[in-house]
From TrEMBL:
<dbReference type="GO" id="GO:0070403">
    <property type="term" value="F:NAD+ binding"/>
</dbReference>
<dbReference type="Pfam" id="PF20463">
    <property type="entry name" value="PDH_C"/>
</dbReference>
<dbReference type="InterPro" id="IPR036291">
    <property type="entry name" value="NAD(P)-bd_dom_sf"/>
</dbReference>
<keyword id="KW-0827">Tyrosine biosynthesis</keyword>
<dbReference type="Pfam" id="PF02153">
    <property type="entry name" value="PDH_N"/>
</dbReference>
<comment type="similarity">
    <text>Belongs to the prephenate/arogenate dehydrogenase family.</text>
</comment>
<dbReference type="InterPro" id="IPR046826">
    <property type="entry name" value="PDH_N"/>
</dbReference>
<dbReference type="GO" id="GO:0006571">
    <property type="term" value="P:tyrosine biosynthetic process"/>
</dbReference>
<dbReference type="GO" id="GO:0004665">
    <property type="term" value="F:prephenate dehydrogenase (NADP+) activity"/>
</dbReference>
<protein>
    <recommendedName>
        <fullName>prephenate dehydrogenase</fullName>
        <ecNumber>1.3.1.12</ecNumber>
    </recommendedName>
</protein>
<feature type="domain" description="Prephenate/arogenate dehydrogenase">
    <location>
        <begin position="7"/>
        <end position="296"/>
    </location>
</feature>
<dbReference type="InterPro" id="IPR050812">
    <property type="entry name" value="Preph/Arog_dehydrog"/>
</dbReference>
<dbReference type="InterPro" id="IPR003099">
    <property type="entry name" value="Prephen_DH"/>
</dbReference>
<dbReference type="InterPro" id="IPR008927">
    <property type="entry name" value="6-PGluconate_DH-like_C_sf"/>
</dbReference>
<keyword id="KW-0520">NAD</keyword>
<dbReference type="GO" id="GO:0008977">
    <property type="term" value="F:prephenate dehydrogenase (NAD+) activity"/>
</dbReference>
<keyword id="KW-0057">Aromatic amino acid biosynthesis</keyword>
Length: 296
């Protein structure tokens, strides 16, 4: 066997994303020879032991990171600073610290001040997931044919970036380097705003049902049902994403509101051309996602 990419990889937060990483490494030992998992919820640690998806489970952050070549933070973005402060003093010289957080400017601001010169941080974000969370939700093909976006900071070395690119390629992903601001704007429109709309539309339908005492949700047809899938995502994760990427999200929400108002005007004035063109654009986007294999 060729030399593995890493000897010891530690996953902090073996939930949906972290446990999918662990499961993939179990299938492909050229990624790492030894995996360690740590979670601040002891029940999650015990369950990861039962699932047997990590070679070692630690119940404290210090032991979990001590000899790791690569530490992956797969925890809610609002917890990144606290955990970085807990682990950096115990990390091995020359080790790589990386993350899977859905926001990048906030995660970098949380981690960068606590780095020491001998730890290299490579910010990363796999654009793959589901509405489920926790260690039971993970699976080894989650990242296949998906993008992993990497947003290096000035102190990130090329060598460490190359290793994290190789890591995500071994996970089955395509990788792309993006600037931090560009990442946060793109994710605000393709991921964060759709979740905001899904949570809001479910709340609107629910309060309408309460107000009118009618059976709005009983007749929820498939259009609404698709929103409920997205709206069933984890509250802690999404609370943290909204607060930590608020500028980009509010900017995209303002643009969306303008476009929704333009559509309302077109409907009011029976502007058939505008309405048809808007719907056709949606169909074109769906078609191109299918062609690019980003939709099953
Ligand atoms: N869910 C998705 O679709 C998705 C996709 C891409 C990236 N992400 C990002 O990846 C990260 C993990 O998301 P997930 O969906 O796997 O979440 P998850 O809820 O499934 O798992 C997160 C785990 O982190 C643990 N945790 C929380 N705070 C901790 C702390 N202080 N110390 C140690 N462990 C802690 C939790 O107990 C939990 O087990 C988040 O930053 C999220 O934004 C999520
Ligand atoms: O597939 C889903 O259901 C997801 O919510 C995954 C999704 C997304 O919005 O596409 C969610 C958050 C991420 O940071 C990346 C991917």
């Amino acid at each position: 066997m060729n030399t593995p990419l890493f000897h010891r990889v530690t996953v902090i937060g073996p939930g949906l994303i972290g446990s999918s990483i662990l499961r993939r490494i179990q299938k492909d030992r050229s990624i790492a020879t030894h995996t360690v998992a740590y979670d601040n919820n002891p029940d999650v640690c015990k369950h990861v032991q039962e699932l047997q998806i990590a070679d070692e489970v630690c119940f404290d952050p210090k032991t979990a990171v001590e000899n790791a070549d690569c530490v992956i933070l797969s925890i809610p973005v609002g917890a990144m600073e606290e955990v970085t402060k807990q682990i950096v003093p115990y990390m091995k010289k020359g080790a790589i610290l990386t993350d899977t957080g859905s926001t990048k400017a906030s995660v970098i601001a949380a981690i960068e001040p606590h780095l020491t010169p001998d730890i290299v941080f490579v910010p990363a974000h796999p654009m793959a997931g589901t509405e489920f969370s926790g260690p039971d939700a993970g699976f080894d093909t989650l990242f296949e044919n998906r993008w992993c976006l990497i947003t290096p900071i000035p102190s990130t070395t090329q060598e460490a970036t190359d290793k994290i690119i190789a890591f995500w390629k071994a996970m089955g992903s395509n990788t792309r380097i993006l600037s931090i601001q560009h990442h946060d704007k793109v994710c605000a429109i393709v991921s964060h705003l759709p979740h905001l709309i899904a949570f809001t539309i479910c709340n609107t339908a629910d309060s309408l049902e309460e107000e009118t005492r009618s059976e709005v949700l009983d007749y929820a047809a498939s259009g609404f049902r698709d929103f409920t899938r997205v709206a069933s995502s984890d509250p802690t994760m999404w609370r943290d994403v909204f607060i930590n990427n608020r500028e980009a999200i509010l900017e995209m929400l303002a643009r969306f509101t303008e476009d929704a108002q333009a559509m309302a005007k077109a409907i009011r004035w029976k502007d058939e051309e505008y309405i048809t063109e808007t719907i056709q654009k949606g169909r074109r986007i769906r078609k191109s996602l299918i062609e690019n294999k980003q939709v099953q």
